[in-house]
Amino acid sequence: MDSPREQVAFGDAASELADLRRQVEELRQAVRARDDFIAIAAHELRNPMTPLLGVADLALAAARAGGACPPRVTALLERMRLIVQDYVRRATRLLDVSRINAGNLRLEPAVTDLSALVVAVAQRYDAAAARGRSPIELDVADRVVGVWDQLAVEQVADNLLSNALKFGAGKPVTLRLRPHGDGRSARLEVRDRGVGMRPDQQERIFGRFEQVVTEHRDSGFGVGLWVASRLVEAMDGRIAVASRPGEGSTFTVTLPLTLPERAGPDTHERA
User: What is the dihedral of CA 157, 86, 223, 258, to 10 degrees?
Assistant: First the structure.
C-alpha cells in the first residue's frame, strides 16, 4: 500500500499531467483558429482582386487594339495588371499555407500538357524579365504530357520562375523541360545566374518562411519555395537545388507522369 507521501506525489503528477494535456489542447485549438483565420483572410483578400484583374486585362486589350491610347497609359495599365497578379499570387500562397497546415491539401488529377503550361507561365513574366534585364531562355520539349494537378504544377513553375527572376542579378534565366527516366517522368529545371547560395542556405531554402538572401527580405512572405516543395511532394515528385555563391542556382523538379492513387479527383477543396 502506498504511503501518504507517495499518494500525494502521485496526485501531484496526475494533476500536472492533466494541466499539460489541457495546455496542449488549448494550443491545438489556437493553431486551428489561426489557420482558419488565415484561410478566410486569404480567401476574402483574393476574391475581389479576380474581377479587377479581368477589368485590367480588358482595358489593356482595348488600349492595344484601338491604337489611339498613349504608350504611357498602356504601360501603366500593364503595370497595374502585374501588380494585381502579384497580389493574387500572394493571397493564394497564404491560402495554400493554411490548407497544407490543416492537412486539407488534395489534388485534382487531369491530363496536363506541361510543355504548354511552362511556356504560358514564362510568357506571363515577359514584362518582369524585361524590367529586371533577365531574359527568359526557353528550352522546352514538345508534348511533355502527364496526369497532374494542373493548378499545382502551374504554381510550382510560377514560384520557381519568380524566384529565379528575383535573384537573377540581371542575367538570363533558363527554363528547361525534358522527359526523364525512360519517359516515366518529367524534369523541369529553372536556372538563374545570379547571387547563388551557400550550402547552409540551401539546406534551409525549402523551409517555411525562409528567405535566405537577405537583400530581398521585403519581397514576399518567404513561403513560395516551401509551398512548391509541398506540392511537388504531394505529387510523389522530388525538388532539389544546386547552387554556388555568385554563380546562380538551379532548381530541379522531377514528377512522375501519373499522380498517386490517393489523390482523388473529388477531394480537393478549391476556393
Answer: -30
Residue-range definition of the domain harbouring residue 175: 109-256
pLDDT in tens, 47-96: 677 777 788 788 888 887 767 788 888 888 887 887 787 777 767 666 66
Distance CA 173, CA 163 (A): 10
Among candidate residues 45, 72, 104, the one where a domain is terminated: 104
| Structural contact between residues 259 and 236, judged by C-beta atoms closer than 8 angstroms | yes
The amino acid occupying position 62 is: A
Contact 181/238 with Cβ under 8 angstroms?
no
Other CB atoms within a 10 A radius of the CB of residue 48 amount to 9
Instruction: For strands 238-244 and 248-256, give the pairing.
Output: antiparallel
SS3 of 256, please?
Answer: strand
Is the pTM of the predicted complex or chain greater than 0.70? no
Q: What is the DSSP letter of 127?
A: H
Q: What is the CATH number of the domain that holds 48?
A: 1.10.287
As a whole number of angstroms, the distance between CA 119 and CA 138 comes to: 8
